[in-house]
Amino acid sequence: MASWNSTPLEITYEVLGWTAFVSWSISFYPQVILNFRRKSVVGLNFDFVVLNLTKHSSYLIYNASLYFSSAVQKQYFKKYGDKQMIPVAANDVAFSCHAVLLTAVTLYQISIYERGNQKVSKISIGIVAVVWLAAAVCVFVALPRHSWLWLISVFNSIQVSMTCIKYIPQAVMNFLRKSTDGFSIGNILLDFTGGAASYAQMAMQSIDQHSWVNFYGNIGKTLLSLISIFFDLLFMCQHFVLYRGKSSEELVKTSDEPVSENV
């Protein structure tokens, strides 16, 4: 495996990596704390949480396998060259473990707190069922040939797909309610910071190695950062510009008030 050519770039890489890890890890807490204080999950889209759990679970499988498995690493070097570096760092594995745990906690809150008439859609349930069924089939396909790199790339593709669609239900829900009340903006700001730091981390490694294999060799992480940043900007626009200062309760009261007539 290749080694670092520049110590400053190596240090910067580590700092950016742990910055992304801390930002992304902390990003789960504002929503959990908000739910706890309100004793309600109204305003938080349940499809977003369910899809997010599938996304982080598949991402954990990919990161842990590529980071710890010598068999997977051997296949990676065979495909991309033994002078390349593994595109998964310790902070990636740590983040994935933490993300699965906190997303599960959020799901537990959904089961015990006030949720109004909100529920998980049949579409999301169907998507999750199909995804894990397809993943199970891929496991049996990979076993005879020991195609471990291909197998974890499947899980990587799953997490990218989930990242592409998981934000959509929440964005649509905010649009229909004309409010972001119940959805923590602190989560989004920290997620944006993590995405930017992760992308910068990959750039540091590519600059040091004079190669962009790091980006297309770990396309999941690349797309994860870009897609997350796009939706984070969308949510910030909804919260700070489009629906600034509007709560769902105020909107309901306004719509229920009779129109006064001047005499």
User: Could you tell me the number of beta strands?
Assistant: 0
Largest sheet: none
Percent helix among the residues? Answer: over 70%
Radius of gyration: 21 Å
Strand content: under 5%
Count of individual helical segments = 11
The ordered string of helix (H) and strand (E) elements is HHHHHHHHHHH
Distance between the termini: 83 Å
Tell me, rounded to a whole number, the average pLDDT. 86
The helix-and-strand class reads: mainly alpha
Structural shape: globular
Low-confidence segments, ≥5 residues, pLDDT <50? 251-263
Secondary structure topology:
Blueprint lengths: L6 H20 L1 H11 L7 H23 L1 H11 L9 H23 L9 H24 L2 H30 L7 H25 L3 H4 L2 H24 L5 H9 L7
Characterize the structure shown:
- This protein has helices spanning about 5-25, 30-40, 45-70, 70-80, 90-110, 120-145, 150-175, 185-210, 215, 220-240, 250-255.
- The protein is an all-alpha fold and about 260 residues long.
- Helix 1 runs parallel beside helix 5 and helix 3 (about 45-70) packs antiparallel against helix 7 (about 150-175).
- The longest helix is centred in the middle third of the chain and has 30 residues, at about 150-175.
- It is globular and about 55 Å long.
- The protein starts with 6 loop residues before the first helix and ends in a 7-residue tail after the last helix.
- Residues about 250-263 have low confidence and may be disordered.
